[in-house]
Amino acid sequence: MSLIQLEEVGSTNTWLKERCERLCDGDAVTALRQTDGRGRIGHTWLDSEGMLPLSVLLKAPPEIETLTLRISIAVCRTLEPIVGESLSIKWTNDIILREHKLCGILCESVAKCDGLNVICGIGVNLSQPEEYFSAAGIPHGGSVKSLVGAECDRLSLARQLAKAVREYSEKSFADVREEYTRRCITLGREVRLVGASERICFAEGIAENGCLICTDESGCFEVNSGEVSVRGLLGYI
Ligand code: BTN
Question: Is the Cβ atom of 105 under 6 angstroms away from ligand 1?
Fold first, then answer.
């Protein structure tokens, strides 16, 4: 397994996707600058000097439906010793420190003749100043440096993250569901489900398949992250 380092790339996810047949399970790529980063549900992921982009190639990982949830735990566990505080997860896979988004995760599947490959992309806000996030119109964003003043080595962090991603991609969700539930900041509050339409409900729990278990006046129901994203009633969380 190797970590490829690039000076500049459009998107580390796209770079890996285009080469996955020639690369090995667990290979990863990072870059100093990412000029065309992609986020969930078609959003762009802003480039900035202080952001660490990393993508890891997983060949035919088990339990794909819960993969991003397991990767979220891997990211929390890797970043916690650096920030010195517990990290939370906004369902499904935003990593949260002090109600600010520290990191986003985008897992994409691509079927090739060698089977199903999953590209697991992670963007960590490492050292952008606080003003960067307000100027960029993302006041709920925060970096390791802006929130706790910590610094860390990009390459060493990229290596640690890639290792943790590989480790958690092999785990069963049944074994980490309790930890996910404990970390999930979405639970136990009223939220707005945003998809084809909007719906307000109470977020109750996490199902065995990673779906969000919700209740409203019509009863109990489950939603998956392909259908909806979640917003707080008063803001991002
Ligand atoms: C999100 O919308 O929260 C997910 C953002 C994921 C961004 C990362 S940065 C590395 C990788 N390459 C991309 O183009 N996107 C992901």
Answer: yes
Pick from 237, 11, 232, 199: which is nearest to 121 by CA? 11
Nearest to 104, CA basis, from 229, 233, 235? 229
Give the pair of three-digit tokens for residue 89.
Answer: 């997860």
Q: Is 162 exposed, middle or buried (0-12, 13-18, 19+ CB in 10 A)?
A: buried
12 lines ligand 1 (CB under 6 A): yes
Q: Token digits for 154?
A: 């990009």
| Region 185-189 average pLDDT | 97
- Measured distance CA(73)–CA(66) in Å, rounded: 11
CA 26 to each of CA 16, 76, 159: distance values in angstroms, whole numbers, following the listed order: 11, 19, 11
140-162 pLDDT tens trace: 999 999 999 999 999 999 999 99
CA distance readout (Å), 79 to 12, 20, 100, 212, 219: 20, 27, 14, 25, 38
Q: What is the pTM of this model?
A: 0.97
How much distance in Å is there from the Cα of 61 to the middle of ligand 1? 19
